[in-house]
Amino acid sequence: MAEQARTTTEIKEDILGRLQTVIDPELNIDIVNLGLIYNVDLQTDGNCLIEMTLTTIGCPLTNILADMVEAALKDVPEISTVDVDFIWEPEWTVDRMTRYAKMALGIH
């Protein structure tokens, strides 16, 4: 019996779940809860574009985090390639963080 194709929603949830395993090395919180992921776009050709930001411009972790994102998504069957695009508008603020991330970092 053939496996049923996953819905777009299921695939996006899988992608976001895997991105939650990418931990910011400086803050020890995952990049999803930090609010660093701005957009996930999985195209029909299997290219997955991740638009994300960092807490500060010029962060030395840019390449490391891009590699970590690619590694986290490598086993998603619908993805053939991953492109990580760092964007700076809108600027990241603590308001983008989830309640979990704020509590973990002691921000009220």
UniProtKB/TrEMBL annotation:
Signal peptide: none annotated. Residues 12-84 form the MIP18 family-like domain. One of its GO terms (molecular function) is methyltransferase activity. Keywords: Methyltransferase, Transferase. GO terms for biological process: methylation. InterPro entries: Fe-S_Maturation_MIP18 (IPR052339), FSCA_dom_sf (IPR034904), MIP18-like (IPR002744). SUPFAM superfamilies: Fe-S cluster assembly (FSCA) domain-like. This is DNA methyltransferase. It comes from Ligilactobacillus pabuli. The lineage of its organism: Bacteria, Bacillati, Bacillota, Bacilli, Lactobacillales.
